[in-house]
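Box S2. Input/output pair 1.
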Amino acid sequence: MTDAVAVEARAQTLPRVAAVDLLRGLIMVLMAIDHTRDFVHSAAMAFPPEDLSQSTAAIFLTRWITHFCAPVFMFAAGAGAWFRLERGDTRAQLSRFLWTRGLWLIVLEFTVSRAGFFFDLGFDPLFLLVLWALGMSMIALALLIRLPYGVLLGVSLGMIALHNLLDGIAPETFGALAAVWKVLHVQSLLSTDPLVIVAYPLIPWIGVMAAGFCFARVYRLPTERRRALLLRLGLVTIAAFLALRGLNGYGDPRPWSTQRDALMTVMSFLNTTKYPASLDFLLMTLGPAFVFLAWADRFRPGERNPFLVFGRVPLFYYLLHVPLIHAVAIAMTEIRYGASPFLFTPPPTLGTPRDVFPPDYGWDLWVTYAVCAGVVLALYPVCRWFGRVRKRRGEWWMSYL
């Protein structure tokens, strides 16, 4: 009886975690900017936005703000697992949910998500993208939650802080097991038949998700203490990024350098490595996320708040937003060029050779933002409807969306 009362008491504190949903919803909108850029922006067809020899501040920062998506997505997924324990799941039940949902995400990566990006399940190559990494990290967390809290915290932080020590290890070092090392820590070509590319190596994402699971205990603390801790954690993380990045040594394989002007130098400083996510990259993105949580903890958003709506059904949103962006890009292309053989071909940002497309293919950056805004507005009523249905019906399978 005592345990049941304790669980119920903790469950009453869960409205506080609306801040986490708000953060996750904000990340969903940023994700739409990134994927709209992939399909629509002319510069995205020509050069990577991180290439400072060609990029502009607007192009670079449009890409940079989307860097928050993957770390926060992973971290929030770990926190969400802990919230399930707070709602009354046993560790055995949570473990089963994590590995089954992880497998489901991997299936979605190779089917629904892939179809949304390419409109062609047979398109080569096969990319191991964010849903793959999220699913594999959940499967790993299903095992890791059996560890004592202190051990799990040490493992997660150690993976985040120390994994850049592994950067110099080449896959060939492991001989027949080279493919395993590529999956774990090297963005690379995994196989040629079929053509498979590891876009999201699993280290340190497993550690990020496990850290989110450990972090979520902060929501057991009294309000003022929790807010103060979140703010301190955010500021310390940002300070750690500035100090470590400033030293230009350990923490990122891509050093920054003085550029032709101060703004470009700042861009070089912020130009950290995402694949695999470096320590600097994670400090840079998670620090502001903690500050946001401290700030958002003071608000009680209404049920119609767009970020809250998206943050409560992030996977549902994710699976819809890519094909919608793709369809809009196809419509824009047909209006501009008429019926063309490249109409249903993925853009150069997703693997199609650039010379398949017209030299002037793509639109200005403001068009990218306008299309993104339209997509987000279109998805709002759909996501709000699904969120209400899921809350009202509570079907078990809905938790997998």
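Box S3. Input/output pair 2.
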Amino acid sequence: MSAPASLSIVPREPEKYVKTDKQIEHSKLMAKHEFVMAEGGARSGKTFNALRQQIVRGVRVPSRHLAARSHLNHARQALGLDTIPKVFEVCFPRLPYEHNKSDNVFRFPTNQGGDSVSELWLGGVEDNIDKVLGKEYSSIFLNECSLISWDSVETLTTRLAETSGLNLRFFFDQNPTIRTWWTYRLFHQGMTPDREEVQWDTAVISMNPADNLDNLDPRYIQMLQRLPKRKRQRFWEGLYLEAVEGALWTDEMVNLAKLREPGEVVETIVAVDPSVSHTDDSDECGIVVCSRDDQDGGIVHCDHTAKLAVDEWARKAVDLYHEFEANAVVAEVNQGGDLVDSIIHNVDPTVPVYQVRASKSKFARAEPIAQLYEDGQLRVSHNGEMPELEEELTTYVPRTAKYSPNRLDALVWGLTYLLGDGADTFDIAGG
């Protein structure tokens, strides 16, 4: 690999970057072992340190490396436009680099002089795996492994094959998910998801925000500590989660929905589970945007559930209708009746409104939609970060809960309307 003219070799100055104790330990593991997982809470320095290690390796020897997430657009945004430039700026301030955004590759010179360069490629292992497989690498880093399938990991090991002179390395990081996920079985039990013993040289380290306090805003720490219990356990304490007995959705089902690649959008609706009062004791208004795709599957785009006054949630629903170029607003009217239709039309009389009215129990309405998330018949994609919605899906137990799951209800209304599964559980009117 030859260096472009723009990459003139500049003598490296000592790094100003100061590692945390955990990052020092992490770096030692990455130097010693072939497969290394860094797992724990959010913003603990895992990703930054793994990418730094890849660049350090590339500076030593002309070589090719891969940093990937589940989808290429996520890798571009989170790694290519954010973390990797920060690593160069903070750790290698005098090392020139070139970022070819169309090819999704960073190029930078090596210590061997001349025109030798190394490459750090970006990839999406669930949506552009064929392009990723077209090259061989000296190291591969998979970011956010709770969103990456075991099948992709096995396939990628065949591309860890570049003969650059570097020891081959596979790095991973994640906020831990559930104990049945492949990451727990591989790095804590030494097994594949099929319970076959793995002979790989593996190591795992736990890294949490408390290990990185000097680099974090105290307000961010407070936000993590105030998360709902399961999210706090995952993103602050870095713990693996246990399934909630009786919940219709599991964490694994939600993870699968994040992995599913949606088709082309055919129809979009804004689903509303409205609140009819606005007091301190009022329920939140469930607002979820959903689509049906050309594979007869559902797409959940976003969750805007909040405690809102009547006119506020109506305006929010109308704004989302226009933002997503939706076909209609679908609103549950068991409490508000025709008033819900009128409230929305007071904001914008041109918006089509379909009223849905439950004719069966909450469990009977939700169960057929939860089944669409199951492995083997997966028909729903989660297209974005929706932690509060996912928390509600995986913790709400219909038979014993004493609260109304407004986010879950809005999702169920929307996907039932779009996909027709269990359509006999409610009546539809309006337009």
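Caption for Box S3: The longest helix spans residues 72-91. The first strand starts at residue 35 and ends at 39.
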